[in-house]
């Protein structure tokens, strides 16, 4: 008879073969510690116009409401770090994670393969895959399963590889061995991320006012960017890497090995004047398979114009 230990070892091994950086497993259940924190964050309006964060409050805290009979949350990370940069230092900046193909599709394909492998090896297993687009507190689950700690910039950080990685989950009705000890916090007295944020989005250690974050302002915000942020965007037109770039733990970042995340030469090579003159046609061509499509052409143009003014 195959044991929970064998199943767990098999799943972690297969996840590694598929290119995942790490895999940790937690017992599915209600997130008691996170519930009041999420409630306060929402009451303070820190979600800005992200109204979807207020939806499915109970499901966001309890994966057993998302998957019938859920017993395990399999947390996975996948590296996207690159040392490549945009060639024009004056060009409006794009976050590293959007240099290549849209991570949602890449990771969902890998999760689909992992589910199929689990079902082929173990049998009838019910499960759902999640990549940043459902009511799942992925950082909380990744922390519980030992993938890292939630830092003062609210990103998950690993002592081994820093924080330039995506998170995803498989929530399944399969009972497995659980990684019982959350990773210890290693931020110490460091405040580099807090000090470096040009919009003061990290309002206190471990608490980010999403409505002030450059990533929110350039991607999630659909209305005009408030004038109070003029001159404070540090030339970011899509996302922001500041709090990660200054984090000491990212000196341990490793170059990714995922072909789909290879930087698009067109993204890296465009000059500042070319960005300012970008057309819908160019946008559609350059960002055909990119996460940048989320902001749409009109949103990117708005961001570029805001940086100019």
Counting helices, strands and paired strands, the structural category is alpha+beta
Report on the biggest sheet. 4 strands, antiparallel
Count the E strands.
10
By CATH, the architecture of the largest domain is named 3-Layer(aba) Sandwich
Report mean pLDDT, rounded to a whole number. 95
Number of helical elements:
12
- The separation of the N and C termini measures 68 Å
Q: Roughly what fraction of the amino acids lie in strands? A: 5-15%
Q: Which fold name fills CATH's third level, the topology of the largest domain? A: NADH Oxidase
What is the count of distinct domains?
A: 2
Poorly predicted residue ranges? none
Shape: globular
Give the oligomer, counting copies of the same chain as homo and different chains as hetero.
Answer: single chain
Widest β-sheet, arrangement of strands: 1-2-7-4
What is the C-alpha radius of gyration, as a whole number of Å?
20 Å
SSE map:
Elements (H helix, E strand, L loop, with lengths): L3 H14 L4 E6 L6 H10 L13 H5 L10 E8 L13 E2 L8 H20 L4 E4 L7 H7 L4 E2 L5 E2 L7 E8 L19 H5 L5 E3 L2 E2 L5 H7 L15 E3 L3 H4 L19 H5 L2 H5 L3 H7 L9 H13 L1
Parallel strand pairs: 3-10
Antiparallel strand pairs: 1-2, 2-7, 4-7, 5-6, 8-9
Helix pairs in contact: 1-4
Main location: cytoplasm
InterPro entries: 4Fe4S_Fe-S-bd, 4Fe4S_Fe_S_CS, QueG, QueG_DUF1730
Subcellular location: Cytoplasm
